[in-house]
Amino acid sequence: MTRTLAIAAAFIAFAASPAAAHHCPKDAKAIDAALGKVTLSAADKKAVMALKAKGMALHKAGKHHDSEHALSEAARLLMTKMK
């Protein structure tokens, strides 16, 4: 339960952080860290990883708003799967 609350708190902080072009890699690292702490089905893990990859590709292309959206979707999917 404590681990779940810690992960949820990290994602709340992630979602509430101000928009900045250079926080996309930090968000991706937070997603990777959470993936190591949450048990997901293969399909859910694949979806999270695809959204993370899409977000980082958009970041590299300079489309930071779209990147943040994709990374947020990955984080939301992780949060919905936490038990």
Key traits:
mainly alpha; Substrate Binding Domain Of Dnak, Chain:A, Domain 2
Condensed summary:
The protein has 83 residues and is an all-alpha fold. The protein has a single domain, classed as Substrate Binding Domain Of Dnak, Chain:A, Domain 2 (Up-down Bundle).
Can you offer a commentary on this structure?
The protein has 83 residues and is mainly alpha-helical. The chain has one domain: Substrate Binding Domain Of Dnak, Chain:A, Domain 2. It is built from 4 helices and no strands. The radius of gyration is 12 Å and the shape is globular. 20% of the residues are buried. The model has no long low-confidence stretch (mean pLDDT 81).
Task: Describe the protein's topology.
Elements: H1 2-16, H2 24-35, H3 42-60, H4 64-81
Helix pairs in contact: 1-4, 2-3, 2-4, 3-4
